[in-house]
Amino acid sequence: MPYGLYISAEGARAQSQRMEVIANNLANLDTPGFKRELAVFQARYAEAIEQGRDYPGSGSINDVGGGVMLSHTQTDFAPAPTKRTGDTNDFAILGDGFFVVQKGDQQYLTRAGNFQWTAEGNLVTQQGYAVLSDGGAPIAIDPAGGPFEVTPTGAIRQGGAAQTLALVKPNSLGDLVKVGENLFKPLAETQPLAEAERRVGWGYLEMSSVRPTMEMVQLIEASRAVEANINMMQTQDQMVAQLVARVMRS
């Protein structure tokens, strides 16, 4: 069977996986704080090299290109637009950093500031996870304690008491892994933001970083690449069929 058939099949699969990544981005177009994913491709070795039966640079018939494959997906942490909502449940980090939330016995990071206040006065995420202060305790106010305010540095004041939102940043964005629900798991220690770096917009919300026009263009591009690879597979299959038919007639 023509080796090009395998290369075309691998190309079709890689582009199909890319389409899944783009579709997920588009599905989160209206998700606050969402960071788009990028599909990263890399060249693939020939099958014999992949299986360890040959090695790169051998100069043999096996030392040919093996097409491309999806290596991994990478989160794009580019800044997203911020929208004023006027809602006292909404918080936006204006600059670098992440909020810290408690899920079970683990702490996670998020850029999504569409929080909510429970009847007991606890500040939680949309999924009900506690939003933490810089001291590691859940943020809470007294529901009967009167009005409260949030300062530009993220301090929540009510009466004479004040709590400060935990705002941290990793040493490298590569230390963060998406775990679903708009949360990131840090693989290394994080650092609290310095006072001069702390900027919180109360009544503001960071929107999704997905740009629909760009994603649609890439989706069409990937779809056409899948179609082109499938057409190549059909062409090569027809060539084999014609060759077999000629051999059978001879």
Polypeptide structure, described:
By secondary structure, the protein is α+β, with helices and mostly antiparallel strands. Helix content is 27%, strand content 30%. The protein contains three helices and 18 strands. It has helices at residues 3-27, 47-50, 212-249, and strands spanning 37-45, 65-75, 82-84, 91-93, 98-103, 106-110, 116-117, 123-124, 130-131, 149-150, 155-158, 161-164, 167-170, 176-180, 183-186, 190-192, 200-202, 204-206. The strands form seven sheets. Strands 5, 6, 9, 13 and 16 form a five-stranded antiparallel sheet that branches. A three-stranded antiparallel sheet has the order 10-11-12, with no helix packed on it. It has a two-stranded antiparallel sheet with strand order 1-2. The two termini are 20 Å apart. The model has no long low-confidence stretch (mean pLDDT 91).
Question: Which helices and strands, and how do they pair?
Answer:
Elements: H1 3-27, E1 37-45, H2 47-50, E2 65-75, E3 82-84, E4 91-93, E5 98-103, E6 106-110, E7 116-117, E8 123-124, E9 130-131, E10 149-150, E11 155-158, E12 161-164, E13 167-170, E14 176-180, E15 183-186, E16 190-192, E17 200-202, E18 204-206, H3 212-249
Antiparallel strand pairs: 1-2, 3-18, 4-17, 5-6, 5-9, 5-13, 7-8, 10-11, 11-12, 13-16, 14-15
Helix pairs in contact: 1-3
Label this structure with key terms.
250 residues, alpha+beta, 5-stranded antiparallel beta sheet, 3-stranded antiparallel beta sheet, 3 helices, 18 strands
Short description:
The protein is α+β, with helices and mostly antiparallel strands and 250 residues long. Helices cover 27% and strands 30% of the residues. It starts with a helix and ends with a helix.
